[in-house]
Write a structure and sequence with these properties.
Blueprint (H helix, E strand, L loop, with lengths): L1 H33 L16 H11 L14 H13 L1 H28 L2 H12 L13 H16 L3 H12 L9 H10 L1 H5 L2 H29 L4 H10 L5 H13 L3 H23 L2 H15 L7 H7 L2 H9 L3 H4 L2 H18 L5
Helix pairs in contact: 1-4, 1-5, 1-18, 2-3, 3-4, 4-5, 4-6, 5-16, 6-7, 7-10, 8-10, 8-14, 12-13, 13-14, 13-16, 14-15
Length: 363
């Protein structure tokens, strides 16, 4: 199935980049006349808009101190870009790594969806929905989303094929990419328990399975320990993230607050509220439709996504809860949904990309 996976992932990968290119053209034309919503228009930074600027700074300068806001960004993506940048330059390295990882994520998602459903049509639709996700334009920008998606999906493929040591390495790298990677410990534990009888007879594999459970949290802990040694503050990444997103909130109360603020005129909060309802609905469907390992990953992911004082970027974080995409692919089996869902998603992605490039939406 490698051929169809690569072919379809590559086609949808290219399709998404054409839509993002169109969004840049529209943004330039519109805001040349009306002006952007912010002092410095994000579209002027090109593919380094928003968080891309932070990753570029980290790749070029590193983390300055414990009070540096860039410390909230985990290190693997800018570190790999720095190493690759020795050959081709830092800026091209960031873009190449982000887009190459997004392509790899699409191929991996195709394979995982085939394992889950056995239906190549659903696998194709799921892969396309990932590329055309309403905030999927971040897979084109210099963001770490593509790398995290690729690593996380590959962890699942390795767990299901009992390649414990490879899964442990990938999970550790995921933990160095995003703090939410620790949730990967739950499906890893599920597969270790499920295979416990075989593992008792294979000590080396059993050790690999145990390390797989610990690997993603260990990746995150490694960054925190480095922060202690290099910056003098173990919790600097957490503190800087809380300064931006606030502390963890009780999800239902937070959504009720978003709804109340929305009906009082806060368009951003209202948008986040309806996006959260859609995310929750897909998560509920996931519990009914998907395997246990995917449910153990997606449910805590969704709770984490909506349990924040600041819901900005919530929709982007939902992209990391990739089992939601498989659910959307399964639901698209219905003719009434499958005929319009990819088109609506593509239009939404292009439109939201224009808003993000104008500064009206925080991706």
């Amino acid at each position: 199935m490698t051929g169809p996976a690569v072919r379809h992932a590559a086609l949808t990968w290219l399709e998404a980049r054409l839509y993002v290119a169109a969004a840049f053209v529209v943004s330039h034309a519109v805001f040349a006349q009306t002006g952007p919503r912010t002092t410095v228009a994000p579209f002027e930074r090109g593919l380094f808009a928003w968080d891309g600027d932070w990753y570029l700074r980290i790749a070029e300068q590193g983390y300055l101190n414990a009070d540096d806001p860039s410390v909230r960004f985990f290190p693997l993506f800018p570190l790999l870009s720095r190493w690759l940048g020795w050959l081709i330059g830092t800026e091209p390295a960031l873009i190449l790594l982000a887009n190459g990882a997004a392509l790899l994520a699409g191929i991996a998602l195709y394979h995982l969806t085939m394992q889950e459903t056995g239906d190549p049509v659903i696998a194709q639709r799921t892969t396309r929905l990932m590329a055309l996700f309403p905030v999927g334009f971040v897979l084109v920008l210099a963001y770490s989303e593509g790398l995290f998606l690729a690593l996380s999906i590959l962890v699942f493929l390795c767990l299901r094929s009992r390649r414990w040591w490879t899964a442990a390495l990938l999970a550790f790298l995921a933990g160095l990419t995003r703090p939410v990677a620790g949730i990967l410990a739950l499906p890893a534990l599920y597969h270790a328990v499920r295979n416990r009888h075989q593992l008792r007879q294979r000590p080396v594999a059993a050790l690999g399975a145990g390390l797989t459970v610990l690997a993603a949290p260990a990746g995150t802990l490694t960054f925190l320990l480095w922060s202690r040694m290099a910056l003098g503050n173990t919790w600097a990444p957490v503190e800087q993230q809380e300064l931006l997103r606030g502390r963890t909130s009780e999800p239902l109360s937070r959504l009720w607050h978003a709804f109340n603020e929305g009906i009082r005129g806060d368009e951003g909060e209202l948008f986040h509220f309806f996006a959260a309802i859609a995310i929750i609905a897909l998560a509920v469907a996931a519990v009914r439709l998907l395997s246990a390992d995917l449910c153990l990953y997606v449910v805590p992911s969704v709770i984490f996504i909506i349990a924040s004082d600041n819901l900005n970027s919530m929709e982007r974080y939902a992209l990391g809860a990739f089992p939601l995409l498989i659910v959307a692919g399964l639901l698209s089996r219905k003719v009434s949904i499958g005929s319009w869902l990819p088109t609506v998603s593509a239009v939404a992605m292009t439109s939201i990309c224009v808003l993000a490039l104008s500064g009206a939406y925080v991706p």
